[in-house]
Fold this protein.
Amino acid sequence: MKKVISIFLAVVILASAFSIAALADEPVKFAVASDLHYNVPEEELTATNDHPIFWYANRRAAMDNESGFIIDEFLRQAEEAKYDFILIPGDMADDGRWETQEHIDVSAKFKAFEEKTGIQIYLVPGNHDYGRGENDNKIEDMISFYGDFGYNDAFEKRENDFSYVTDLPGNYRLIVADSNDPSKSTEDGMTSDKVNWVVKQAKKAVEDGKYPILMMHHNLLDHLPMQRILSRNFIIRNHTAVANKFANAGIKLVFTGHEHCSDVAVHTSPKGNKIYDFANTALSMYPLAYREITLTDEEITYESKTIEKIDTATLRSQVNGYTDEMIDLMDAGLNDFAKGYLKAGVQYRLARSLTMEQMGIAEDSIFYNLVNTAVTGLTDLLEMPLYGENSVQELAKEYNVVIPDSDYENGWDLATDLVSYHYSGGEDFSIYSTEVTILLRMVNLILLDDLSTVNDEVFFGGLNELLGNDSALFKNFTKGIANVLGPVTPGQYFLIAVASPIVYEFVYDSDGVDDNNGKFEGYGIEPDLNENRADNFADILDTICIYLTNFFNIIIKIIGIGR
C-alpha cells in the first residue's frame, strides 16, 4: 500500500512540475496605451482656424473633446481582448498639473474597468499630470488619484516620486520609473540616483528568476534624427550610456510615451545585450493607437491597434458645434477623421509660430523687414497650389526646378502628411519617392525665391522702385542664372546637404525594426555575445554607410533638381 501511495505521490508531483513548467511559458498578453491627455469636454467647440471641417483643431492636434470617449472605447476593446494587464506610461490628463477634475474622471474610468474585468492597470504619471508649482497637483495627489494602479501594492517604492516595482503574470517583473523633472514641466528627471535604482531593481529581478520590464514617460532611445539635440526634452540625458546599463542589467523591453510617436528603436550594448524602446503614440491623437504585446520565453510579438469608432451620439449631446458632416466622417472612420484633424492642427501650429509676434520680433527691430519678408514668402509658397495656374510647379519652372506631379494640394498638405507618418510610424519614403523629391525641390525653390524676394524688397527696394514697372532685379537675375548654370548655387548645395539628411531621416526609418507590427527574440533566449559583438560593430558601420549613402543620394537628387 505504501508503494502505491508513493508512486501516486510521485506521479502527482511530476504532473504538477510539468504543469508549472508549462504554465511558466504561457503567453502573457497585454496592452500599452500612453498619453491619453484626457480633457473635460467643452460645452461648445472653439474655432481656431479657417479649415472647412477641422476648424476647431488645436495646436497640439489632440482630440480634446473626444478624448474621454476614445479612452472608453480603448477600455472596451481591452475588456474584449481579455488582456492580462494594461500599461500606461504617463500623461493620463492634459491639464493635469492643475485640473483636478481630469484626474478624478480618468481614475474613475480605470477603477470601474478594473472592478468589471479584473484586469489590472499599471501606470506612471507624465509631465502633464503633476508639477511642483504652488498651485500644481503634487506627487501626493498622484498617489491619491492613481495609487491603486500599481503603486499601492508594489513591494518596492522610491521616496518622493511615483517609482515602484511589482510582479506581473508569468516570470515578469515591472520596474516603473517616474522620469519627470522635479521642477521643470517637460525635461526628464532621470538622475544618476534614479538610473542606479532601476539597475539595482533589474539585477534583483534577474536574481529572483524574473524578467525585468521597464516603464517610464520619457524616451530611452532616439525616435527622431538627433533627438537629444532637436527634441532634447523628450529623451533622457546620457541615453546611450543609460541604455547600456539597463541592457546589461537584464532589461530587454522599455515602454515610453511623451514624443507621441509610434516607433520601436533597438540598441545593442558593447556586451551584446539588446534593449528595445517602444515609444507609444498619444491615444487621443492620430493614429489613435495602442500596442498589443504578447510575451513568451522564446518570442516577443507586438501589434498596433487603433480606435475606429466612438459614441458620437453622446459626444454630440454633450458638446455643441459638431456638424452633420463632421459626425458622419467620424462614424465612417474615426482614424481617417483624426488624420485630417492632425494635419489641420499641425498647420495651425506651424503657421501660428511663423509670425513676427510669436518669434518675438518687434516692428521697430532692425531685422523686422528682413525676417517678415522671408517668413511671408515662405508661408505664401506653402499655401500656394502645387499644380495648375499660378502654382508652385509653374513658379519652379521659372527657376529651372521641376516639381513632379502628385495628389498633394499644396506644400502644407505634403509637410503635414509627412508629420502624420512620424506619429503613426512606418516612415518608409525612400530617397527616390515622389514625396522626398517634392520636399527637396521645394526646399531649393524656397531658398531661390524667398531669398530673391528678400534681396529685392529689403536690399534693392530703392533701386527697384526707381526703375518702376514692378522691377525685381535680383529675382530676375537669379532666374537667369538658374536657367543658364542650373538651379542650385554652391551655397544652396551646402545648406540643402546639411539639412537634407535630417529631413530624410525624419521620413525614412532606417533602423530595420518595424514600428507597428513585428517580433523578436524573447527574454528566455540567451544572446550569442560573440555574434552580437560582431553585429554591434556591423550596426555602427551600417549606420555610417547608410548616412553616407543617403547623403550622396541627396546630392545626386539635388544635382538633378531641374530634371
About this structure: The radius of gyration is 27 Å. Residues 529-559 form the longest helix (31 residues).
